[in-house]
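In the laboratory, one determines a bound structure by crystallizing the protein with its ligand and collecting diffraction data. In a computational setting the workflow is compressed into a single prediction: the sequence and the ligand go in, and a structural description comes out. We illustrate the idea with magnesium ion.
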Amino acid sequence: MKITQVECFPLKIKPKQAYLGGSADVDAPDYYYRDEYRCVYSRKMETSLVKITTDNGLVGWGEALAPVVPQVVSEIIKNLFAPLLIGENPNKTNVLWSRMYDAMRDRGYLTGFMVDAIAAVDCALWDIRGKAVGLPVSELLGGAYRDGVDCYISGLPAPGIAGRVELAKSWKQKGFKAIKMALGYGVDEDIANLKAVREAVGPEVQLFIDAHWNYSVSDAVRLARRMEELDIRFFEAPLLPENVTGHAELRSKTMIPIAIGETERTRFEFQPFIDKRAVDIVQPDVGRVGITETMRIGYQAETHDIAIAPHLSVGLGPCIAASIHVACALPNTKILEFQPSVFEVANSILKAPITVEAGRYHLPSGPGLGVEVDEEIIKQHVLDYKNA
Ligand code: MG
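The predicted complex, in structure-token form:
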């Protein structure tokens, strides 16, 4: 079996609601800077898909998380990786991962768009591997520890506390047992939000906080200590991601588990957090890391009694399916993220939907990733882009 074709599909989809709330129907540039999160967001749903074809007629789909400029990932795959892949056996996922990672390693491209592009290709290769033998990816990864994975509602995109409380109650009624609030607005405001939601949903719903890297060590410690009485189950992105020692200091001063990892892309980037005992839960995103490397990170974490809770934000189909397979195939998975507004758009590009019921993703059972991308639909959203 040999790879014969690599095609790229950078997508830009206009959703009803923008990611993290707000209206998408704005006549404004696609990209805008959110001061409170110090980060660029898109008013559209963007992603970067790759389709790999083999000489025996198999097709594998992969996806890189590409919330902005998805065409960058496509360019890297088309111009840099395709020549390394054509003619190769897609079963060689480790070998091809190394070849792609090595391609720009000497030049210092150890993360970012480069590894996003590797992740997309790696995901497509695993899809082919599964289809070639008629087995789901989770079985090829060594078998599923569970037939589905619990998930948490990510963010309560309402403007005020009352609105967030109502959203939290409605998710609880739908059977969800875990909610993460996107905060980082200051210690007092964060506590007010968490307290209101805790009172509304009771002790049986797990609550998490994502602070979007907004705190200093001292403020994060103050917040964490006040969160202990609210039974907050993890504190995500408390400090800027480069501050490994700060995370270790924070972790030594609170019982709240520290979660990091959506900015990290390889086991090399997680290792300093592990060495310094700075993390309780790692959160790699399969759309940034790929299946091969996320499995390695999962076992790297397990070796040190650390859990994995994969990040999942604007992945639109193959990325979600790949995340479920990986989450089911690792022994130390705590929970997987669920983005309601993204999920609907994701399923709109698939021939049969990925399903979530009462706070749990079902593990797709078909060969490969177990999902089929609807090529006619994605062609309506693809950026003006020529596959050479
Ligand atoms: Mg986050």
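The mean pLDDT is 95. Keep in mind that any predicted model is a hypothesis to be tested, not a measurement.
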